[in-house]
Write a structure and sequence with these properties.
- By secondary structure, this protein is mainly alpha-helical.
- The protein has a domain at about 195-260.
- It contains 15 helices and no strands.
- Helix 2 (about 20-30) packs parallel to helix 4 (about 55-65), helix 4 runs antiparallel to helix 5 (about 70-80) and helix 8 packs antiparallel against helix 9.
- The longest helix has 16 residues, at about 205-220.
- The protein starts with a helix and ends in a 15-residue tail after the last helix.
- The relative contact order is 0.05.
């Protein structure tokens, strides 16, 4: 940080009326815990460019990072007053509202913000899903992830989270349908094949589960030796063997059920 601030110090000395330099230095100071210096620089930037939404945006981010959601929300409102269709401002407002105990308002702000973003990221949709999970609405969380998949044109991170939530909610048919698509699109990924077997086991279809575990075991055996030697593969192989054991006719399955993620 010292090199960056020294460079900004020199630039400000040459152009003391350039508000963006104070903004950059203030944000940098704030990220490194130098609160007073950050607020001083952001105040100077505001005095030079009082209508710039960027000042309120960065000050809001810093206030939230400092654990001040109420003060951050004040900054966000100023940002929105100058830029009413700022999707990122609404996402920041959502985080503030959630920390202030206004979860439903946070969800509404998140929905509005995502709708306005020109280029949302997978993390944006994951954040919204977790908000709905906190509200106890897994169905809406999954629906939001699926909407994100359509909008982004696909995302493994969103698919995996949606799958986890469907299994948690015991929506096994939906989980199987998702896994079938993942297996097809991934060329028969071993972890998805194993997950499919486990979902069949959750459903109580031990015959189908045993067949699926067997198929996963065959797939695992066909992998190159170098890949079979990895820790990740060995963990999958352990789960496959455990699944086959649970689904064996002599196994007391109800005494040792596979646990959900």
């Amino acid at each position: 940080m010292a090199v960056q601030t020294a460079r900004l110090d020199a630039q400000i000395a040459e152009a003391p009326l350039e508000w963006a330099l104070y903004l950059r230095r203030g944000y940098l100071l704030g990220l490194h815990g130098e609160r007073r210096g950050a607020l001083d620089d952001l105040g100077r930037a505001q005095a030079l460019a009082p209508q710039s939404p960027r000042i309120y945006a960065l000050r809001g981010e810093l206030r939230l990072a400092w654990g001040e959601p109420r003060e951050a929300l004040v900054e966000v409102k100023q940002w929105l007053a100058r830029e009413p269709r700022a999707g990122r401002a609404l996402l920041l407002a959502s985080r503030c509202l959630f920390l202030l105990g206004e979860a439903h308002g946070a969800a509404q702000s998140m929905d509005r913000g995502l709708a306005l973003l020109a280029h949302p990221s997978p993390d944006d949709f994951l954040e919204r899903a977790e908000l709905h999970v906190q509200l106890g609405d897994i169905a809406r969380a999954v629906a939001g992830l699926d909407a994100g998949l359509v909008r982004l044109g696909g995302s493994i991170a969103l698919e995996r989270r949606a799958l986890q939530l469907e299994i948690r909610a015991a929506r096994y048919e939906a989980a199987l349908a998702r896994l079938d698509g993942l297996c097809t699109n991934s060329g028969g990924n071993l972890s998805y094949a194993l997950r499919r077997a486990e979902v069949l086991e959750y459903m109580g279809d031990l015959s189908a589960a045993k067949t699926a575990f067997g198929a996963a075991a065959s797939k695992a055996g066909d992998l190159p030796p170098a890949k079979r030697a990895t820790r990740a593969h060995q963990q999958l192989a352990t789960r496959i063997r455990a699944g086959l054991k649970r689904c064996a006719p002599e196994s007391n399955h109800l005494s040792h059920p596979v646990s959900h993620p």
